């Protein structure tokens, strides 16, 4: 089992920044790729970013590239999603999740473990 606990969400004005954290624990969690996904009201869950514990990272979709950065701190067993220049369309519940399959990052069903989610609301 892998446990994921997100924090850092909140209400921010457009143009502002937030940093989400995900503390990871449990058995063999370093074998997993850590992903960030989000779900906006009335929309499907969307892949945002992922990182391995060795530092291989990716950020999607195009709407967040250049604004969002994924990183990790191995000493703290924590992964981060740094979000800058936030827009109202970034409003969503953000989830941290763990998968073993890099090829299924964009498939929410490809993840084995999930955090509880943290709400991000961006006001205009």
Please provide the ordered H/E string of secondary-structure elements. Answer: EEEEEEEEEEE
Please tell me what the overall shape is. globular
Give the low-pLDDT segments: none
Helical fraction equals: under 10%
Tell me the strand percentage band.
over 45%
Q: Helical segment tally?
A: 0
Which radius of gyration do the C-alpha atoms yield? Answer: 13 Å
How far do the termini sit from each other? 40 Å
Mean pLDDT: 96
Structural class: mainly beta
Please describe the biggest sheet, giving its number of strands, its sense, and whether it closes into a barrel: 7 strands, mixed
Tell me the total number of β-strands: 11
Model description:
- The chain contains no helices and eleven strands.
- Strands 2, 4, 5, 6, 9, 10 and 11 form a seven-stranded mixed sheet that branches. A four-stranded antiparallel sheet has the order 1-3-8-7, with no helix packed on it.
- The relative contact order is 0.31.
- By secondary structure, the chain is mostly beta strands.
Defining traits:
124 residues; mainly beta; seven-stranded mixed sheet; four-stranded antiparallel sheet
Question: Can you give me a brief rundown of this structure?
Answer:
The protein is an all-beta fold and 124 residues long. The chain has strands spanning 2-7, 10-13, 18-26, 33-39, 46-51, 57-59, 68-73, 78-83, 92-99, 113-114, 118-123.
